[in-house]
Amino acid sequence: MGRLNLIISVLFSLGFAAQGSLGVAAQKADAQAGAGQVVAASVKLNKLFSNLQQASSEAQARVIEADIWQHWTLSGVATIDRLMKQAKLLASRGHYEPSLGLLDRIIFEQPTYSEGWNRKATVLFFMMRDDESLKAIAKVLSLEPRHFGSLAGKAMIEMRAERWSDALATLRQAVKIHPFLKERHFIKFLEQKLNIREL
Question: Does the residue 186 lie in any domain?
Answer without folding.
Answer: yes
